[in-house]
Each structure stands twice: as C-alpha cells, then as structure tokens.
Amino acid sequence: MDSIATLLAEHITAITLLAASVLLFMSFVASSRFRLWVRDFWATLPVVGSIAQLSKDRTHSSDGWLRAEETLCSIYKPFARLVGPQEFGQSIEYLRKAADLGRTPTPLLIWSLLVVLVIAEGMGFSYLLGTWMAREGSANTHTVLMVAIVFVLCVLLVWITHSAGRQYRRTALLRSCFKRFKDLGAKEYSADLVSLEDDQAVDQQQPAFKQTLNRVAENSHDTGNYAWVITAIVTIAFIAITSTVMRVKNMEGETIRETAMQAQTSSGNPFAASLPAEVSQAQDQADKAAQADANTAKATEGIAAFAMLGFIFVITQIVGMGAGYKYSFVGRESGAAFTVTRGFATYAEYFRFVQPLRDLANGRLKELQQKLEEKAHTRLSLDKTFDDYLIKSDASSASVAQGADEVWSRKRAGQQGHAVTAPKVVQPTASPKPVETAPAVVSADAMPPLAPAPAQALADEVETVKAEIQRLDNAEAEKAYFLSLPVSIKAKPELQAWLKERKAQRDAAANIDELF
Fold first, then answer.
1. pLDDT digit string (tens) for 81-114?
2. Dihedral angle at the C-alpha atoms of 166, 167, 168, 172, nearest 10 degrees?
3. How many CB atoms lie within 10 A of CB 456?
4. Among 516, 387, 322, residue whose Cα is nearest residue 84
5. Are 355 and 387 in contact, with CB atoms under 8 Å apart?
6. How buried is 29 (Cβ within 10 angstroms: 0-12 exposed, 13-18 middle, 19+ buried)?
7. Helix residue ranges, H only, 12-84
8. Which residues contact 384 (CB under 8 A, 6 or more apart)?
9. pTM confidence score
10. How confident is the model at residue 39 (pLDDT cuts 50, 70, 90)?
11. pLDDT, mean of residues 488-496
C-alpha cells in the first residue's frame, strides 16, 4: 500500500493532467461536430476510408440505389438531417410555453470552471481529512487520500448544487403558476400534460400560466418542492462549519505544541540557574506575556483566515447553484426540443447551419459515385443525392410505423372482443391505397394516430402540394418545400411518382437544350 501511495504521490501532477486531458477529450467526443469531423475524416482516407472501400461494392439495392450509396448516406444522416419548418416551429413553441426559450445546456466552460473552483477550495480541508483517515500513514498516503476526497467532494457538490439550482427555478415557476391560478379564481388547479409530439396549439385558448404548467408539471397537481435546495444548503453549511472547526482546532494544537517545545527549550538552558530568582522570575513572566500575545494574535489571524475560506467555499457553491438555475431546462421535453432546434431561434438561422452539412454529404456521395463509375465495366447512371436518401428514409420509416399501428389496432380489437383462446393470425388485406390512416409519426399538422383520414382529403392534400411545386418552378425551392412537408404527405406513392415523372421531363428538356 505504501509503495502504491508513494508512486501516486510522486506522479500526482502527471496523473491530474492526464485525467483532465481525458475528460476534455471525452467532452469533445460527445459533441456532434467532433464526431462528424471524425466520420468525415475516416470516409475520405485514400485506401482504408469508407469511400475507398465502398467504391468496390456495386451491389444493387432497391429503387435504383446501390448499397454503397445507402451505406455512405447513412454515415452522414445523423449529422445532416433537416427538420421542416413546421416541426421546428412546434419545438420553438414548446420551449416558449415551457419558459425555456433562449436557454442552453450548461456549457463545457462553465462545468470546467465549477470543477476547478471546487477542487481549489477543497484541497486544504481534504488534506486534514486525509491525515485523520490514516493517522499512521506517510505523507504520500495522506496526499493520495487528499486527492480521493477532493474528487468525491467535487462530484457530489457540483451535482448537488446544479440540481438545487434547477429545482429552485422549476419550483419557483410552478409556484408562480399556482399563485396566478389563485388570483384568477379558477375552479381547479390541474395540468393537461402536453408532450412535444402533440400539437402545441392544443391549449392556445388557455391562460399562459396553464400552458406553462402543461409542459413543466410532472402530474396534475405538481407544485414543485425544495428537497434538493434544502439538501444543498444543509450540505454546504455542514462542510463549511466542520472544515472551519477542524482548521481552528488544528491551529490550536499546533500552538500548544509550539508552546510546550519552547518551555522545554527554556528549562534546558544551563545559564538560567546562575541568575537571581527575581531576575529569572521577571524574565519568565515577560516571556509568557509575549508568548500569550503572540498566540492571541495568531489565533485571531487564523480564525479570520478560516472564516474567509469558509465564505469563499459558500460563495463557490452559490455560483454552482446559479449555474444550475441559469443553464437548465424545466420543461419535461425541453431538452429534446432544444436538440431539434439546435439552439437556433429562427428557421432561417437553423437552415443556414444545416445546409453546409448537407452539401458536405452530397459532395461525398458524388465523390463515391464518380469512383463507382470509373471502376465499373458497364455504364452506370448514378444520379441519386443525399436529399433523395433522406426522403426515401423518411418514407420507409413512415411505412414501418404505419404497419406497426395496424398490428396494434388488430391486437386492440382482439382484446376488446374478450378472446379467451390463442389469437388468430390475421392476414393483412390487400389494399390499393395502403395509407388510409394517419401515420404514427406525428408532425405538426398531422392527424391524431389511428384517426381515419378520408380518401378525398388525402387526394386534396396531394393536389395542393402539386400545385405549390408547379407554382415555385425552381428545383432548389421545390426541394426545400418538399422536405418541409409532413412525412405522411411525402410518403404518398402518387406524389412520389408524379415527382419522378416531373424530374424525368426536366432532364429530357435539359438534354434537348444541350443539342442546340
């Protein structure tokens, strides 16, 4: 044990720097931009990269796609997926009504600052604790124990204070909603819970406090509590008082040991016996008075220093609670809504951020297609884009979700029929129009799940989309408009067939123009 403690104590600085570097690297790895950079870097490597390896695979998939194209697009899909204006607007509205609009998760710089403050403040107190935990241990053992205690204090205090700050803001918001309810004299204080997937205009006619309550409260009569706040206050007060008492007592012990050592030194003086009693007695009284004054001054100075350390500790924890108050979401699904918006307040800003990422994915796909055409022994017509892959992926997801809804509906019908025997295997009925119910993927203007949609209404929606695309008459504008549509409309077979025909007509017209 002593050898391990000695080794750790001798390299404590290097170990601390290594741990800090690992934490910093992990934080970068967790960021989306860093992961995109790593994936893109690996994809573009000359020999072992994804593009180089996928260019050897010319296996056909469905709908005219190659497996290599789909694999490469799937690499960039998590980073460059574009949500439509309606979904973006629903997320913004959720954040606004939950009183979280404009807030962000705690930045890495703030986390680092809190950790550094807690470590710097807790080192002295931790050394005293380490000394008491191993009274017979060496200085190296005390150092190792000090580091361990500092780590535990850092994790606990940062977590507790951050949770307390968030809970204080949430409870204060709920209590203000409750006060507003009493001021209006409403009949009952309750919450109609609204999730991110719901239409955010569902409670538009209700008071503002009720809209906030619907997105923040955990249950119908939630008014919040201050459990974490009380825990943080008790913990901070206990550590501050205990550390101050330990420092004062440690100072008093050192003073007593110094006084005893000086007394032994005076008693061992060989010239003290040759002095007259009156002289030696007066000298002893003067020495004791000077020593008492010195001890008093030292004690006063030490207590003032320890009080300042305790004050700094309390202020540090208040800063941690302030960070939790400022950088926290109180809405039940505000974190998910923030992920959708990526922190942007308007769709224009969001689109300007995402579009370069999609351009990057389209460029990598074009590079792969060029390599595939160069190595192919037959003529390949590769004109797919990354946007086409996103449309195809969304349509496939909608189809799978619709199939799951149909299975769930059959199970529910069987349960309502009180079947006592083993359920029968229900064969799906053929239907020329598979999309007869609203899909499970609910968009901003989609109908509720399992609600039957009239065929005429669906046909009218498709015709409206066709008319708008013809009105735009611009490839980029048409593509942006199509991507903003709900998945239930984008997945319509007749609309996709019409778009393919329209694209073929444009390509044919472009080829004719090239002849002249």
1. 778 888 899 999 999 999 999 888 888 778 878 8
2. 110
3. 8
4. 387
5. no
6. exposed
7. 12-30, 32-43, 50-54, 67-80
8. 64, 65, 69, 365, 369
9. 0.64
10. confident
11. 79
Contact 113, 320 (CB under 8 A): no
Of 77, 163, 72, nearest to 370 by C-alpha is 72
Please report which residue ranges of 185-274 form alpha helices under DSSP H. 208-216, 227-267
Which residues sit opposite 437 in a β-bridge?
452
Asked if residue 320 lies in contact with residue 165, where contact means CB atoms within 8 angstroms, the answer is yes
Residue corresponding to tokens 């924890």? 317
Single-letter amino acid, residue 422: A
Extract the tokens encoding 77.
């899909």
Residue at 424: amino acid letter: K
Cα 165 from Cα 318, distance rounded (Å) = 9
> pLDDT tens across 207-256, in order?
888 999 999 998 888 888 999 999 999 999 998 888 888 888 877 777 77
User: How far is 459 from 465, CA to CA, in rounded Å?
Assistant: 10
Tokens 């669906």 found at: 458
Token readout for 14 is 């290097």
Which tokens belong to 294? 């010195």
Contact 122, 156 (CB under 8 A): no
**Cβ–Cβ < 8 Å for 469, 482:** yes
Please name the amino acid found at residue 416: Q
